[in-house]
């Protein structure tokens, strides 16, 4: 697959409102599928499972099993690049400032991500 196809595929994953909302929630802290579902509201567990798989397959999120209860999976943002992309998208839409070439955009994302959820 060409690089342009990979980039197009990457951005197509971000083309779903529920996936953006999931990323916003996971930016704040690690959550289980049930916790995500209850915070989002209006999304069934099967639909959420599909969205989580799509995000995980494209390396937006990752999961870790609970060490005490091996049945629970906690989902987190895969890396700081995802936070940076969210920050830049929100800043661009709102006409805000850039992160000054830094991948540490936590303050900007924290302020704006609540508007996404």
Could you characterize the architecture of this molecule?
By secondary structure, the protein is mainly α. The protein has one domain (3-116): Arc Repressor Mutant, subunit A (Orthogonal Bundle), CATH 1.10.10.10. Helices cover 60% and strands 9% of the residues. It contains six helices and two strands. A two-stranded antiparallel ribbon has the order 1-2. Strand 1 and strand 2 (73-77) form a beta hairpin. The radius of gyration is 15 Å and the shape is globular. The model has no long low-confidence stretch (mean pLDDT 84).
**Strand order in the largest sheet:** 1-2
Q: Give me the CATH superfamily.
A: Winged helix-like DNA-binding domain superfamily/Winged helix DNA-binding domain
Number of helices: 6
Using DSSP, what is the number of strands?
2
Distance from N terminus to C terminus (CA atoms, Å) equals 33 Å
Query: What can be said about the biggest beta sheet?
Result: 2 strands, antiparallel
- CATH topology assignment: Arc Repressor Mutant, subunit A
């Amino acid at each position: 697959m060409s690089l342009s196809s990979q980039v197009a595929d990457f951005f197509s994953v971000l083309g779903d409102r529920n996936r953006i909302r999931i990323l916003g929630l996971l930016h704040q802290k690690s959550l289980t599928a049930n916790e995500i579902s209850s915070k989002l509201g209006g999304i069934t567990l099967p639909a959420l499972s599909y969205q989580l798989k799509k995000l995980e397959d494209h390396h937006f999120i990752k999961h870790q099993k609970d060490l005490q209860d091996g049945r629970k999976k906690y989902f987190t943002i895969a890396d700081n690049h995802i936070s940076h992309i969210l920050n830049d998208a929100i800043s661009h839409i709102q006409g805000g400032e850039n992160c000054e070439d830094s991948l540490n955009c936590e303050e900007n994302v924290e302020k704006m991500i609540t508007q996404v959820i």
